[in-house]
Design goal:
Blueprint: H1 5-34, H2 39-58
Length: 59
């Protein structure tokens, strides 16, 4: 990461926004296409949500 805390904050915000977009758009599309998510897919979603929380803590 850079020495500029402002640019780091912007990067983290951008990554979080990208994740939220994927979560809101991609997961419903996948469920429509492939049906209900199985346990492995749910674990992946939980992992993604944990990563989002890490981004929030790093701000």
């Amino acid at each position: 990461m850079s020495d500029n805390p402002h640019s780091e904050s912007l990067l983290l915000a951008s990554l979080r926004d990208s994740f939220v977009h994927v979560q809101m758009r991609l997961f419903p599309i996948l469920e429509d296409e492939f049906g209900e998510l199985d346990d492995d897919h749910r674990q992946f979603v939980a992992l993604c949500q944990a990563v989002e929380q890490v981004f929030r803590l790093l701000e």
